[in-house]
Amino acid sequence: MAWTDDNILKYCRDVENFVDLRLNEKGIKKTIGGSLSSEGEMKINESWSDPISNLKKEHTKIHENIHLKTQQYGVKKYSVGTKEFNKYWCDPKIGRKTK
Ligand SMILES: [Zn+2]
Fold it and tell me: What is the DSSP letter of 42?
């Protein structure tokens, strides 16, 4: 299985499953830093309390803002909630074309 194999890693969920599988194999525990819903709702993990937690939160906000740009582009082009928007949102290959 490889990142570039479009037949295997076709949708977001496939990519997440692939990452989970590889991390589990190495015994690495995953934590979620943040998320952005298709409606544009951003969540940042506020439970970090280690010495670099503020840096991690700031990094996550920057990361999620990139997803927000992708989300906003999709809303502008397809309108949120439409079949076309959902296809755009769930297909990482389509999501790259935001310029
Ligand atoms: Zn991300």
Answer: E
Record the tokens describing residue 72, joined without a space: 């906003």
Q: Could you state, in order of their start, the residue ranges of all structural domains in the chain?
A: 1-30, 35-95
* Model pTM score: 0.70
CA distance 37 to 3: 23
Q: Look up residue 82 and give its DSSP letter.
A: S
Q: Among all chains, which residue has been given the structure tokens 């310029």?
A: 99
Dump pLDDT digits (tens) for 16-40. 888 899 999 999 988 889 999 999 9
Q: What is the DSSP letter of 17?
A: H
Q: How far is the CA of 6 from the centre of ligand 1 (A)?
A: 19
- Kindly give the distance from the C-alpha atom of residue 62 to the centroid of ligand 1, in angstroms, as a whole number: 10
Q: Say how many Å lie between the CA of residue 35 and the centre of ligand 1.
A: 7
Q: Are 81 and 3 in contact (CB under 8 A)?
A: no
**Do 49 and 37 form a contact (C-beta atoms < 8 A)?**
no
